Fold:
Amino acid sequence: MAQFKNNIRKKIEPFRKFKDNAAKSIFAFGGFFIILSIFLIIFFIGKEAVPLFKSYQVDSNKNFLTDKEISENIIDFYPDEYNENLLFVNKDGQLNFYNLNTGKIKYTYSPVLLENETIVSSNSFAGDLDRILALGTSSGRILSFKLKFKLKYTSNLDRIVDLMIIPSTSITLSENAIIKFDLIENEESVTAVVLDSNKEIKFFHSEENNEEILSESLETSSVNKVYNLTTNLRNPPTDIGLYFHKNKVVAASEGGEIFLWSIENNQVVLLQQFKLSENQINKITMLSGRNSMVISDQNGSNFVFFLINNNLLKIRELPKHEHPIKNAFRGNLKKIFTSVDTKGNVKISSTTSGKELLNFKIKDYDLINFAFKDIGLLSFQNNNIEINEFDIEHPETSLKSTFTKVWYEGFQQPEYVWQSAGGTDDFEPKLSLIPLIFGTLKGTFYAVIFALPIAILAAICVSQFMAPRLKNIIKPVIEIMAALPSVVLGFLAGLWLAPRLDSVLVGVIIFPILLILSSLALPPIWEKIKEKTIIKTEGIQFFVISIPIIIIIFYLGLVLGEFIENTIFFGSFTDWLYQSAGVNYDQRNALVIGIAMGFAVIPIIFTISEDALSNVPQHLVSGSLALGASKWQTALKVVLPSASPGIFSGVMIGIGRAIGETMIVLMATGNTAIMDWDIFNGFRTLAANIAVEIPEAPVGGSLYRMLFLSSIILFMFTFIINSIAETVRIKLRKKYKEL
Amino acid sequence: MSKAINIRNLSLYYGKAKALKEVTLDIEANKSTAFIGPSGCGKSTLLRCLNRLNDLIEGVKIEGEITISGTNIYDPSIDLTNLRRNVGMVFQKSNPFPLSIYENIAYGLKIAGIKDKSKLDHVVEKSLKGAALWDEVKDRLNESAYGLSGGQQQRLCIARAIAVEPTILLMDEPCSALDPIATAKVEELIKELKKDYTIVIVTHNMQQASRVSDYTAFMFLGELIEFDETKTIFMNPSIQQTNDYISGRFG
Amino acid sequence: MKKYFKDGSTYVWLTGAMASLSMLLVAGLFLLIFYYGFSTFWQSNVATVKLKDGSYISGEFKKEGKNYNDEDTIQLKIGNRDLYGLDFRWFTKKNIDSVSYDKELLLVERNEWGVFYGFPKELQIGNESIIYERDKDRFYQILEQKLKFKKTVVMKIEDLEHKISKINYNLKNLDLERKSSTLERKEEIENEVLLIEEKYQVLEKRLFEQADKLKNIKLRLYTSDGLEKTLTLENIERYLKPNSLSILGKIGLYFSKIWEFVSDEPRESNTEGGVFPAIFGTVLMVLIMSIVVLPLGVIAAVYLNEYAKPGKFLNLVRICVNNLAGVPSIVFGVFGLGFFIYGIGGTLDQLFFSDALPSPTFGTGGILWASLTLALLTVPVVIVSTEEGLNAVPKGIRDGSLALGSTKWETLKNIIIPSAMPGILTGLILAIARATGEVAPLMITGVVKLAPSMPIDSFFPYLHFERKFMHLGFHIYDVGFQSPNSEAALPMVFSTTLLLILIVITLNLTAILLRNRLKKKYKGMI
Structure:
């Protein structure tokens, strides 16, 4: 029996075995993990975008009991921004700053009241710097105060909120008690409208806000007149509101009527009067910015009204209640609206989209208010305070508001708008992705229009009619073209091409036409030249000869363009365009983008198409040529059809590139989010929008998440397009192999 | 009995397809045995069972038993690296590593942990001489193996295989990619190597089988049809199918 | 005509035209960049223009155009922004009386307000004064001498500044230590701080002394229209007499300007000086990225090609990896911002840098996060290319190695990975080329227009991963589009573009060559 030279039973050295196993686990785990984590990117981005559309719920429900005495005479209360302290407004005018946790009053302020005067109503709103508290008294005065909250930390890092109250203004508007009032107060002026116990509506406006009006009484007031608006009301008014113009007052009545007055040049004009329904209107809520209002009625309905061209217009309905609405108010910081019905059902909705964000039930209550930063609802009865905490992070966004038309404040009709930030806190964010998606498609469209004919025709030429020697030069050159950083293309397009383009615009438009015309005229001429000369005119020459010809044609185009511009368009095409067609010529426009992005797309389409075209099995080509077809006929009838999936996938990948391109668009358009297909206008794409806005978007805010959503959309767009392209390409490769 | 390899009821499946059907065969030590048969008959698969190179292919299942010197090589305790050191292999296409000629030969030894330079030098020279390549390459041992001609590359692969001193040498159509002169040289070498190694060779070239082998196995559709001394198989096969194949009626 | 339609020569011509058009587009683009990029450094003569109204103005002719009345106009770079308010002015040609090139005209490059064109008048050193007209040679001799002196002073100042920044660094560390130490130690620290601050005072005094030395030397000049301007030595970067330079001198100047461009810091909100910090930032970012992306890409590719179970699922994964290379870069940027900066960076800040909060350390853009983002962006490129390399290794070689008794790892390490090296390198180079030209994701993960300090310096830990950095591509965007004086900045942008393009193209050509080598490598195998 033959013996082994080495013992076959011998084991591998443990260290070798270990190394092999270690390598296996490192590569298997590592590789799997790396690939997995690359794909987790999409989940992370998605995770950041999801809260935009989530539904909200009440996070916690707490109850506090206060001392009976403290809560006895309370007519209203206001929480601080941490929901730790409440400012109680007492009937007798005392303002108590009360700590919920300790149950103690930390600070008391007593305003100077007249004899027998009591506080009947109160309101609080944001002033220029501080919050303002305003009180309506039984003797027809409105007193306002600045609330200065101060934040301190103890040595144990416990938070202490201190309050200081500074009296601001006092106006006398009526002889009767003020049941309801609305007030605009800032450094420059004071405007107020009141509803008194006599069911009369009074309006007051002063262009100064200083000590003097504090002391002025109703009788002595000469400059600051008080207007009575209650002259033509059939039904008693129920609520009032003041528009931001400071001279427009709205009121509602028990009979379901709505009135709109304007006070101009010491004249009261009734602008509008209409009946909404038979139901009594319970509440007018002016939304932040006082641009629009919500009307809530006995039937449980809430309607948003805009003031458009001095006309109140019903825009949308907010979630309806089963029971009459008892109370309604808006968010302090957020674009939300809360209504509570008589049975204690609370509905919180977005004023932008009308979407119901949250609904829950509270116990019976006397007083109710939002927590300062809209992170909860506090309701009060006897000596019990119920706090429902919630956090509505993104009230302004919903799938509907992102992808359909929305009627925004101050707009004439519903529109798609992207406008993420405005000058003031009252600004209503307009986060519709449609204009951006539109811009993306527009840019892609023009880029592909420019690139497609050049790339595909060039690919046909290179793969079918060109000598291999030239091919070996041209292909790498175009590959290098693909490597051009987009910032370079963007810079050249924005700073070199765009300023020069408008003066040669006509020539540039004529050039392709001339080029096509020349292809009709040149072959016969070329034929003649070939007959008469002895130059060999196969393959190479015809390509080489076309280079100077194109330069000549381009030059001709420019000359002709200038001529046409001078004769037909009176010297300036862009001026003519504006005057006769109303088309505004943007210097950085879609044409510039088309050319610049075309540069980026040409090499992609070219390379993939050329690949597909030259890989068409040779026997098909020779078969066709052998049947007597010309080279062109073969290319058109045999090569092109069988390579068309490859060309298709090249175009798709080119589109994918154009969709995601950022720098070119950022640098060579004006980045205006407008929606029209005009080639001489700019646009804003999803990608450029991200680059522009994300550095300024607060982390976790709606804009921030919206940009993450844009990223997801971009990712999806390109991923799907590329997948289609790749699948088509793999199938084509298989087909070629089989042939 | 000096049988080096005993194959018992060996069946091999690629997924569901049965590529080898209950092959039973004894291969004698220090002789050369040829597997012949039309393409796809399973001869290469059978050969690759002998050093368990089929294990690499996804979905392969093996039943039956192969014992080499009384050891079942499909025993779980058998270590593949050691098995393959004992059962060398030369492939259809020459496959030198992208290394120098010297490094190609020394590769197997270095892997096995031999680092002694003088020993390596010795083995390289001995193996190259054994593969009748020494005179042709001794001056350019440090040049890339890809500079060699096809025949030289194949002999380099043989030298590489014998450098680790295997007991058995498997050859998978070693000459199919070579020209007649190179083929003759390799065949010469195989006859030479028989003295020291048990050689199993797969070939589709019947003349080659008759020239270099002592025993011949004829396979068809995964079955072993006939196995006997080469003389007998070629002169006087006992099965009609063998005769048909040998006389060129199919294949 | 019909015949040509039929046999298609019309269309063939059209395809040829498009092929040559795309060539022309590429060629035109490169010519444009090369022309503007290289011409930036060429010093042309400075003309003194006499206008019809009798006034004079000096400047360099830039380009010609037409005004609204269709008259020929010419643009002059008039410099002297501090006096005229703008760098460029258009003149109608018919208003120009005559043009002369005065040999004595002086061009002064300053560290503020751009260049100055004018004539020398006087050099004041303390109380001493050298009038140019009286002794021209001595005037230039002394000026030259003083500029040399300036160089030594500047070096001293830099040295002092370095010492001061070291002190600041120590102070900062002590301050942090004080927050978390015992009372005794606190006192020690206080004393140390006092000592250091004393040192600081001394150094600062010396710094001011040095700076004063430069302020005392004044160069008085006047422009061709007679406005006077006094420059102190600290403002003067260099002076030259462009109209009296010989061709050789101009060539020398040309190269020295190129050198200045690649080795100097930017001046005047990036519109003048060099781009060294941007080059440095780009290179360092790419280096960090490469260190990350190479192992990631190679491990993933080896896993896909060698260890993963082949099948439909693997093909799907492969298509996805391929597609990832086509995902817009800004998406990766968004991920980098959300995940690295706010996610990981924010957590790191809370764990280790809570002393510095609320100002973020790692929770804001920085070179590490930018590099990691780009690593993610380019990892598909490396994976695809490495797989290509691994695939190109013939199966026979693997079998050969295994048949010799080597383990899978030994085969990989000794045979397959070395063979696939060109593929791996190709991938890495393509990744580097992509990273060098990429701007969008960097804009939101840590690139800035002007980094106050380099990411590498002489203070522990020397490499500051959290620092912001400058980048060539972003430099182009920033200077071209964000700079207040974009016309004056244009030459700088073109030079930066040229530099960037040269780098990117060199990298790409290297990758192409390597790929060809990979293809050739196995040609010897039969």
